[in-house]
């Protein structure tokens, strides 16, 4: 099915930018909200994104006007009669999302695809509440949506292959990287990211190293920014919320450092609050140091890049073992979603594991498990690979294929 017209529901942080991305590709898009103020703010965001392109000489004022004319702001469902795809970006509450899809059913053709930008909620559950489960799918953009290349495409249990193909094609027409991910808590990128961020936070909380040292070591390793800089950008409340959800779903290995809760309690929510792990206003870092001093130092806790990065490799192997995505897609998602590199090349956790050596990674995880516990328990598939002699680049067999 070719998509000629789209609609986005919810003109907040994500919805406005998603509508901008769609209009930029040349497609007409309706941006709908229930709140005139949010709608105005969303339209302002879209104008600003285009204006900054004009200011940088990437677009003429005429082109900006023509792209802007593709976006129609709406408070009602008038004009939805010929929409081919609707992407909902309303608040992360299952009840609101189900209610929006119910309303839409009465206003759009029965062939219209219902996509959800949910970060975590079940696509299958949303689909079951509609008259078209085969046409419901997750389309998870990353923030800021007009910059981030990755879109995770998540079919629910009843989503048809045709819908998956249509949405992948649509995503690519938006000049984004589409990665199909089977439904699981955290989907792919957040699932792989949280154990890494969590372990960096354990190192800090236990006094193994400072934020700046941990950040510098991970940037040196190949991350575009350190874990504490990234958490401050994302929001400590968001990290705490996603982390708690993954802990409920995955159990012991997704145990959460208590430092998150402490920071949320005192309003250190990251950049948006002017203070998180780092301070962004006039305040120095004494208050954060006082919080850290309130935790007992663990003399046996040691920081190393392996301790922070191996949990991401292990989670990638667990996702692979559960057939959540192919090895190439897992790495592609982390490259496009997190900007990972290794020794100057764009590589994801599975290709990096192949380079390090799967035996080395397994041995490292087993040592970490002995010292810090169950969250480091190596994935079964990693053990099987090592037993089979698939040790990565050095044996020409690992997670990736080698000539
Ligand atoms: N913010 C992020 O970083 C991020 C990243 C990826 C995915 N998401 C997901 O995107 C979705 C939206 O998040 P956000 O941060 O843009 O939220 P937001 O709070 O900024 O925006 C939500 C918008 O939805 C509107 N809304 C509420 N009920 C509505 C209804 N019934 N009909 C139409 N509009 C309605 C609100 O007025 C608001 O403008 C959530 O599911 C979130 O989990 C967010």
Task: Summarize the topology.
Layout: E1 6-9, H1 13-24, E2 29-32, H2 36-55, H3 61-68, E3 71-74, E4 85-88, H4 94-105, E5 113-116, H5 123-128, E6 136-141, E7 150-155, H6 161-173, E8 177-180, H7 189-205, H8 211-221, H9 227-234, H10 236-250, H11 259-265, H12 286-293, H13 305-321, H14 327-338, H15 349-356, H16 358-372, H17 380-387
Parallel strand pairs: 1-2, 1-4, 2-3, 4-5, 5-6, 7-8
Antiparallel strand pairs: 6-7
Bound molecules: nicotinamide-adenine-dinucleotide (NAD).
The site of nicotinamide-adenine-dinucleotide has 23 residues, from helix 1 and helix 4.
Q: What is shown here, in short?
A:
The protein is of the alpha/beta class and 403 residues long.
Indicate the structural class: alpha/beta
Could you name the ranges where pLDDT drops below 50 across 5 or more consecutive residues?
Answer: none
Q: What can be said about the biggest beta sheet?
A: 8 strands, mixed
Could you tell me the radius of gyration in angstroms? 22 Å
